[in-house]
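Progress report, Aim 2. The chain analyzed during this reporting quarter is listed below.
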Amino acid sequence: MLIVVLSGLRARRAAFVGSFVALALGVGLLTTMGLGLASTFDAPERAPQRFAGAPVVVKGRDAVTVGVRRGPGTATVSQKLDRPQPVDIELLAELTARWTVTTVGGPDAVGVHGPAAEVRTLVGDRAQVLTGDERRRADPEPERDAEALVAVNALLGTAGGVTTFVSVFVVASTFAFAVALRRREFGLLRTAGATPGQVRRMLLAEAAAVGVLASAAGCALGGWAAPWLARVLVEGGLAPEWFAIGGAAWPFHVAFWTGVTVALAGAFAASRRAGRVGPAAALREADVDADVLPLGRALLGAGLLVTGAGLLVWTCVTEPSELLKRKTYTTLPMLLITGVALLAPLLVRPVVRALRLPGATGMLVRENSAAAVRRTAAVAAPVLVTVALAGSLLGSAATVTGTKAAEAREQTRAEWVVTGEDLRPVPGTSATGATSVFVRDGAEALVKYGARAVSDPAAFAELARLPVVAGDVADLDDGSIVVNEEFERRSVGDVVQVWRADGSGPVGLRVVAVLALGTGDNGPYVTRANAPGSVVDRIDARGVDAETPAGAGGTVRGVGAETPTAAAAGAGGTVRDMDREALAAAGGTVRSVDDWAAATHPASSPETRLGLLLVLGIALVYTVIALANTLLMATSVRGGELAALRLAGATRAQILRVVTGESALAVAIGATLGLAVTAVCLAVQGTALATLSAPVALSLPWPTLTATTTTCALVAATASALPAWRATR
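Predicted structure tokens for the chain:
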């Protein structure tokens, strides 16, 4: 058996090249991602910087702590404040009287040159005492490194998952198609006395040999590529500048054995099918595609299709906001994609038969594609996977960001928006600032909500166009709050216990209006009296006869009228019509509302684009490998068929047009099925947005889809034309 296996590998090495390359690439990527993940787990934390020379740091309170019920007892939970509170003046005086105290970068923390135990005794519970590596908590944005590492974890985890998914699919389909092309060989082996078990063991032994060699090569490739990946992540702003690949060994073991397992799993189903047929049946099927969709594949495909569609619908009905998260719209479509890809042979023949291609060449393309269902489906499936991934991932991300921009645009009646840090309020405008409120959710949790602090409730009510489902935002005052549907207490008139941004409270605020949840940005609104430390970072204003040249921010004519409004009149205020020059006195950037929405809600961040391009690049590379390998194998065994066409009078150019037309048709079928999956995913996401009362701005990445399909078509045409050209010399 070993001699037969080795002879088969030598004789059919061209057929195994695609599987070897795909598997080696997959293992290399898994090794690279694994080394990156291991480095995030074991990454050394940044050394203290702000108070590196002080042995002890006394830091003001930076969290609100509340008691909650946990089981039969109680516990305390904390949430980070927007900004640390300053060290108490009396405490600072006591520290200065006993030790040398250094202040750097603000009053929220001081360095103390004294014994830690004595400092801790003096401070008590009036502030935090930090020593050793904990002193980094006094550095500016101490969580930024941890947040960056979490982002790297998410990116590498997603890329690793997509790599495993696509590699399993490509390797399994490649082995299945290779087995289908070797039916005559298996029939001869069975005629010579080989048992079904021997045929299965031969195929599994070939897969194991390819798997071991490819996995070893992939581990070497991954070890070489991991430092390059770390540099890309750092230069792309995804990882801290000190991030580097460590010396962990477990990613190599995981990647190697995953590669071997994928190879064996990919060959297992094909080996079972090859071992079940008898000698005569194998010979009869050698030139005709029959039983192209075995019962097991049909059941698995239908199960995955129903499960994927069911999970999408269930998530849309129960937790529609989950469909706006990248983790959800990245993973859920994979079940749907796999199900449709497994059922592709069932869909190919009806689609091809429905086509009416002109001329004799068109007739041959259609009939050959319908007769060779395995070949057509093997070409269409990887294209389907890539197009569906590109459409669902990029389309979902663009839909979410486009909806956020449309939502922001719809929620204001203003014509000008001024943004910046610590703006100077302009009379007759609506000024707001970012803040936070902390609310106890039931008796078990403390939740932090990003909120907006309103300077002038009357002007705010006039210019805001919020998705109110109950109440009236014009009733907002220092004793009330506007909440959204996410709050536990969300009926108008309810009293919500709130802790403010500086941790003070609780204070009872009456609910005066309830907002639809939307995309998640419809946070609470309070007055500035309940937002200590908040500064104005946005001013909304109304203008007259606004003329806004593209990209210029615009000019305004007819300025200065004071226009009383119903809401403002009831509160004794007015909203003025302002021009750009008057708003410039606020000190920030003045934009028209459309320009502001486009600037503050871009299509995607550079980090998101880098992550999606990495994932889609993996899928496209695998698709190219699968297409080239499948068509090289398929066309190389069609020598007799192509020779018969030559004898029937077909020219060499006509034969090349037929072969490339078949590959182009298969790519078109795969792209069509991929677009269908994308349409389903985006339709469900659009339904979720409508359920959340958010504007639906569905978006398809047509340039990416066109480029992906064109690349697949060119690769398929080349991979089919080259062996056909050689066979017809």
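The mean pLDDT is 80. The radius of gyration is 33 Å. These observations will guide the mutagenesis work planned for the next reporting period.
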